[in-house]
Protein 1
Amino acid sequence: MLGRLAKYLRMLGFDTKYEKEIKDEELLREAKDEDRIVITRDTHLVKRKDAVGICILLTKNDVKSQLIELNNAIPVFAKAAPFTRCSVCNTLLVPITKEQAEKNVPPYVFKTQNQFSYCPACDKVYWPATHIAKLTAFFKEILQKE
């Protein structure tokens, strides 16, 4: 399963669709219809004739190694727009004012933060706290290992 990878790709700003349960035929049809790349660990899937050109096979288990593998296959980091999508539902985030965020964030966050983004699909509010610095360092570390 590549659920963690999907979440990280969303954090990097990529339109990332992830379904736990989907038949190969449906997955490949959707990928073609929606002009998507299929990222998989399924060796049987990538060997199918109808998968040629739209599948990338990953062999690693951990998300850091998977991101390195993916970036080596297609340079995703060059096209990244970090923290512009909801990591939960993939929707583009919308900037909101501090006042608009007040009712949806803890009091300490409201006092200490000035920038907020909102997911109109799942009603989640994001702000640039310490996790942004940690994730940015994580992504930079991956780039150095290419």
Protein 2
Amino acid sequence: MKRALALALAFALPLLATSVLAQDAAPAPAAAPPLPCSAEEYRQFDFWVGQWQVKDANGSLQGTNRIDSILGGCALQEHWEGGSGSIGESYNIYDRQTRKWHQTWVDNGGLLLQIQGGITGNAMIMRGTGKARDGASVDHMITWTPLEDGRVKQHWQSSRDGGETWNDAFVGFYARVESAD
């Protein structure tokens, strides 16, 4: 029995030592690369993420909006439902190549709006040019401003004279709605 134990140890100890040495000699695992959209620029528009009730300056309900962070934090998706039956969606993304935010908006009225911009002060401001139904060129500027009371003000302006004068297309105040989850 002692001889069998001595023989087993004679074979097992070198294998154990080789195994331990091989583990020590193995290279350390590489550090995980940073997530693709983890830079602080990708978080600049996160103040808009949430479930919202949107009212005008007089407190009249204009619609609801849900903004989701999607694709691992690389984009925001908007889901608008207006009180008048309008429905719209947008995708918003920070482009690290141009260092600008981009929004592409489409709605059930046939509007395609493509705007770009970034943070100015504490507000997100995006601008773009599109066509009106009559074919005229229209400049758009939308500003989202987080307010001290937790709401967000969205101010959409348009211009038909190259930005000389601006008209309000929409002014809405977003109030956060607690989800049922």
Protein 3
Amino acid sequence: MAGLKVQITGGDKIASNVAYLKRNFPEWLSAAVLETAYEVRDGAQANVKKEDAYDTGALYDSIGVSISPKGLSVAVGSTSKYAPFVEFGTRPHFPPLDPIRKWCASRGLPESAAFPIAKKISERGTPARPFLYPAFKVAARNHVRRIRQYVKDGLNGLLT
């Protein structure tokens, strides 16, 4: 009776490669996630300027990245209390006049323009000027490509 004999060799090399992947894969993912988070932050800051939401720089400066201890989870957002009102706009309401007066002064408008502006806001609200979500959409399109590139570059370490 004829038989077939199969012998697998290189078990040590396979174990070494698996250990390499287990050790490095989280780092590759973390690097890709972090790079995407900074792309979202930078895009959001650029959008603040593009949407003419940059006055004192407070909103721009409040956009940051928070990273989990292992770097696999990140959050990008603003700590500014008025960021949601810029991102989503507001319903009609009568706003306080002092901040509008300061805004008028920063734009070279007379203080007397504050009340008509507040009245218009009380009738129409303020328009949405999204800055964070559009930045997220752009970065999300690049994220999968970025992960693939980090993994590909890392796997090249096995082949060398």
